[in-house]
Amino acid sequence: MDLGLKGRSAIVCGASRGLGRACAESLAREGVNLVMAARRPDVLELAAKEIRARTGAAIKTVPVDVTTPEGRKVLLTILPDPDILVTNAGGPPPGDFRDWDRAAWIKALDANMLTPIELIKATVDAMIERKFGRIVNITSAAVKAPIDVLGLSNGARAGLTGFVAGLARQVARHNVTINNLLPGPFDTDRLRATMEGQAKAQGVTLDESMARRRDANPAGRFGDPAEFGDACAYFCSAQAGYITGQNLVIDGGAFPGTL
Ligand code: NAD
Q1: 188 lines ligand 1 (CB under 6 A)
Q2: What is the Å distance from ligand 1's center to 96 Cα?
Q3: pTM, rounded to two decimals
Q4: Does the C-beta of 189 come closer than 6 Å to ligand 1?
Q5: By its UniProt entry, which InterPro entries does this protein fall under (predicted)?
Q6: I need a labelling partner for 151 at 20 to 30 A (CA). Which of 2, 31, 86, 141 fits?
Q7: Residue 212 — very low, low, confident or very high, per pLDDT cuts 50/70/90?
Q8: Domains of the chain in sequence order
């Protein structure tokens, strides 16, 4: 299916690795001109080089921390009026809520709630004027099924989800959609990092702990980031204009509810 995105422009945040990178690659394959942002210039440039080689897409890289006002300013100077915005940043660390002070909460809220909101604020009005806009926020399956040790993530992302639910209905009539993609366990660096703590707690090796989690998933495996990227591209497609304000869990069926 042609997603009708040829010649569109996109900002993809957290695009050097993992799920953000996969979103960038799927959009590039559809002929979208990309601005990829992530913190480490070397890793980011390498990712862009590989995606250019595979897709022939026009890609600019912007090595910034998107959770800072300075970083967002640089990013938006390079592309102030994207047709597509994919928000993403690293998730907060796991831990016990008794150890989190105000600074820890502000950091989590900044990264996983306020940064997406600031980026949406900076780009949504131009999308409304052009009568086309697609915004996808990478959040987490923890929004639907909170994970106890990820309280900072549960809280910050729930805030973003509530905000988006309200805004999505205000902009829908202008062919601007805002949706959230909620990853379950995907095989990325982040998954390995978060599972190291779990393996220690279980008293097993990382590989063993990962094998247990893989087996426990209804699909019997972790998600492939490319599957996530393609879901993102579909949400950004011309055909998806009637899908908005949604929270799509992509987790191999791990979330056991019907809604
Ligand atoms: P990852 O660590 O593999 O990749 C994160 C990417 O974001 C990297 O390119 C990194 O450089 C970039 N990044 C991080 N902080 C940034 C910042 N402040 N500014 C700019 N770029 C930044 O992580 P991932 O697995 O791709 O996860 C992406 C998001 O999805 C995270 O918020 C994570 O918590 C969430 N998530 C992931 C999983 C999973 O299983 N992988 C599950 C649930 C939620």
Answers
A1: yes
A2: 21
A3: 0.97
A4: yes
A5: NAD(P)-bd_dom_sf, SDR, SDR_fam
A6: 86
A7: very high
A8: 9-184+225-249 (3.40.50.720), 186-222 (no CATH)
